[in-house]
Amino acid sequence: MTDTAAPAAAMAPAQGIKRTGAVALVVGHCAGLVDLVALPVWVGALIGRFGFGPREAGALVTLFLLGAVLASVLTARNFTRLPRKALTVVGFGLAALAFLLASQQTAFLPLAALHLLGGLANGMALSLVHGTMGRAANPHRLFAFAGIGLGLFGVIYMGAVPQLMLQHGGMVLFFSFGAIMALATLISLLAFPKVEDRTQGATPRSPLAPGVMAVVAGVSLMTFNQAMVFSFVEVIGSARGFAPQAIVGTLIALGLVNFVGPAPLAALLEKRISAGRVVIAGPMVQAVLALVITFASVFALWAPVAAVFVAVQVFTHTFAFGLLSRMDKSGRTAAATPAMLMTGSALGPIIGGALLEGISIEALGLMAVVVAGLSVACFARGIRASR
């Protein structure tokens, strides 16, 4: 995880943040967004290792994400008045405790309570991390390098945890989450940065700029699509008859793609491509890939598309984060990033599970097309309003 922060640390002077502060933000970003990396393993373990059905597994992950959304909304509203370092440490610490306790449980109700607690704690900490990023000198670039860190973290996680679960069982899933949150707690305690306010006269309750909420809705809808399909990638691969090791290999490749692809590319293209064009195109590309993942029955076609699926979200959201940080310099909207991401992620697994169980795999892809259209409409409205 420490290696994850190295790229961002190198960029720290450009952000007006010390290297140790950049390390803390990137580690917090990786820990807080563990769901983006681990969703298929998480859902797959709850189904295959704990014996839950798709709806129950989706509901557990949804409880974690709903807790994160609620905490993020409350934290973002009060971001400019909160003791950011102290609450980040407390949040990641409580999340670590919740997951370590979950590793000792197998029944639905105790796991449900601990998922909710972990989500509340994690959402608060991650909101403070993202709000701090949003007040940096160049939020787009800092968020891009955090994305590189998340990609490296994904490679390490997908390479290690599924194999450890094969050897030691499903408890490894929650042990791994607890260890990640504990590391984020320690590094936040030692190095969480202080970033000066970039606003001029804005108050914590001042109205948001026109178009902000439409862009927020566009991001949330895109994240819903990702969660709805990506949560069941492992399940879809198994249903198509692909070998377990081939599916794990695809997930490892996905992590590699996320490390070397979308975030570095977003950093390089920051000044070359309009953020408006990127956020309009992103949902369209995501919908096409979702159709292939849910309809393809040939591994040679399915695997490369599954491997790049998350990259579309990472690339698009980097531009959306920079766009929102320019539209609202107080950091409140940036602090609501977990709510944007996890509102969609919270609904995605449970709705995806219902579609998968009640209709068919292909229904996931068709729903993705509908949601992509709504996302494009929201982004277009937000961009028009901001001009």
TrEMBL record:
Coiled coil: none annotated. The chain crosses the membrane at residues 21-45, 57-74, 86-102, 108-130, 142-160, 172-192, 212-233, 245-266, 278-299, 305-324, 336-355, 361-380. One of its GO terms (molecular function) is transmembrane transporter activity. The keyword Thylakoid does not apply. It holds the Pfam family MFS_1. The keyword Transmembrane applies. Keywords: Membrane, Transmembrane, Transmembrane helix. SUPFAM superfamilies: MFS general substrate transporter (SSF103473). InterPro entries: MFS (IPR011701), MFS_trans_sf (IPR036259). This is MFS transporter. The lineage of its organism: Bacteria, Pseudomonadati, Pseudomonadota, Alphaproteobacteria, Rhodobacterales.
